[in-house]
């Protein structure tokens, strides 16, 4: 905290850089509909959190002991003979992470269909036991085309990281605002209990988002524009269905 008080500018820049360390957290909530709370909680506390702590603390210790390792602390953690296995492990982790995002996209698409914000799509239920395990071919192919276009368009992982940081922190901020609405209006939490908690959450999410605002001019504008376009399309579809239903009701014959 003293560092942020003494060096506020550098502190904001650091927040914008380290935000990628927690970008997988939002995928956990998107996957809740697929796997449920218990599997995700157990996987997080038993495996993911300890592994991340060891990894990040190890990188920090390496950089403190050898400042030259800052150029690539992750791969320099291991001896030279373990470089290729570590690359293979990283590739597998990337595939798993992408699968989590794809599953989350399926879940959110299903919810949007049920709420009437997008047209109906062909949905395949891949499990006879778990209702949330689904596959939506149109979304899967759209994601593939979108990823290929993004990789070609951005050309570098640095530009993609900027876009990803803006997207993730914006999602976290919007989620906190929505949770605030649900807690106060739907769950009827006492304001004295809910407001302090929400202020803390909004403060953290707001700081992370503010730290990533400068990245909007470095490729971060894409997720903002994409979100705006999707918002307009979804709300237009919803409003159009409402107007159509009202017109049908006006022209219908009353039941005897």
TrEMBL record:
The keyword Transmembrane helix applies. PANTHER family: LOW AFFINITY POTASSIUM TRANSPORT SYSTEM PROTEIN KUP, OSMOTIC STRESS POTASSIUM TRANSPORTER. One of its GO terms (cellular component) is membrane. The chain crosses the membrane at residues 6-30, 42-62, 82-113, 134-154, 160-185, 192-210, 216-237. Belongs to the HAK/KUP transporter (TC 2.A.72) family. Residues 2-250 form the K+ potassium transporter integral membrane domain. The keyword Membrane applies. This is Potassium uptake protein. Keywords: Membrane, Transmembrane, Transmembrane helix. It holds the Pfam family K_trans.
């Amino acid at each position: 905290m003293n560092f942020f008080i003494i060096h506020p500018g550098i502190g904001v820049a650091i927040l914008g850089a380290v935000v990628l360390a927690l970008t997988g957290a939002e995928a956990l909530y998107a996957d809740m509909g697929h796997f449920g709370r218990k599997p995700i909680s157990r996987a997080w506390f038993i495996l993911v959190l300890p592994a991340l702590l060891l990894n990040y603390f190890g990188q920090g210790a390496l950089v403190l002991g050898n400042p030259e390792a800052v150029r690539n602390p992750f791969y320099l953690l291991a001896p030279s003979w373990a470089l290729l296995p570590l690359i293979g492990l990283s590739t597998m982790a990337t595939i798993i992470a992408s699968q989590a995002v794809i599953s989350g996209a399926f879940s959110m698409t299903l919810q949007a269909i049920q709420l009437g914000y997008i047209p109906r799509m062909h949905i395949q239920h891949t499990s006879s036991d778990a209702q949330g395990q689904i596959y939506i071919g149109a979304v899967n192919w759209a994601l593939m085309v979108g990823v290929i276009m993004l990789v070609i368009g951005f050309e570098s992982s640095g530009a993609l990281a900027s876009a990803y940081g803006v997207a993730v922190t914006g999602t976290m901020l919007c989620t906190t605002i929505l949770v605030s609405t649900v807690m106060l209006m739907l769950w009827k939490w006492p304001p004295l209990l809910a407001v302090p908690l929400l202020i803390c959450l909004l403060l953290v999410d707001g700081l992370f988002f503010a730290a990533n605002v400068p990245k909007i001019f470095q490729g971060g504008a894409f997720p903002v524009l994409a979100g705006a376009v999707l918002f307009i399309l979804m709300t237009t579809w919803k409003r159009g269905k409402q107007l159509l239903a009202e017109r049908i009701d006006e022209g219908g014959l009353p039941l005897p």
